[in-house]
Each structure stands twice: as structure tokens, then as C-alpha cells.
Amino acid sequence: MQKRTVQRGRPAGATTFDAELAQAFGAAVRALRLERSIAQESLAHQSGIERSHMGKIERGEHMPTLAIIFKIADALECSTAVLMSTTEGQLAAARS
């Protein structure tokens, strides 16, 4: 019997990007940031990510990793639960 090799990464053609979810998350981050009167550049710096990356997240062009979500929530001085709840609200508003 021949041993199968394990390949790292996603299978060809697979994707985990969901545009609607990415846009809702970005809108939630922007809403919480503006509510706290934090500049995008400051939030990016406090989160430890590039400003351009933060812009892509807020525009829904990039789906952040779990680690980045935690960093953003920490910089916004809120829990990830608040961030996710706000995202759910943005999703509901977009779908209605």
C-alpha cells in the first residue's frame, strides 16, 4: 500500500473569502472606530498592522485572520463579542 502525502494549504480553487461578511465586518470596525473618534492610521498602529491593510479590512476587500480580529478588538478597547455583534448588526442591515 502506497502512503499518501499530506499537502499543506487549501485545495486548488477553494476559497474562504465571503464578500458580504468581509464588508459587514469592515463596516463594523469603521463604525466602532468612528464612535470612539480614532483615526484609521491610529487604529492600525495600535493593532500592529499596516494602515493600508486596515483600509482594506474596512472596505471589505480583505478578510482578517482570527489573530488580527483580536488585535483590532483590543485596540478598539472592546471585546471580540462586541465586534462580532456589531458585525451581525451590519449583516442584518445589509440583508434587509
UniProtKB/TrEMBL annotation:
PROSITE patterns, per database record: HTH_CROC1 (PS50943)
Keywords of this entry: DNA-binding, Transcription, Transcription regulation
Family annotation (SMART domains): HTH_XRE
Pfam families: HTH_3
Sequence ranges assigned to domain HTH cro/C1-type in this UniProt record: 29-83
Name of the molecule in the record: Helix-turn-helix domain-containing protein
Species whose genome carries this gene: Acidovorax benzenivorans
Lineage: Bacteria, Pseudomonadati, Pseudomonadota, Betaproteobacteria, Burkholderiales
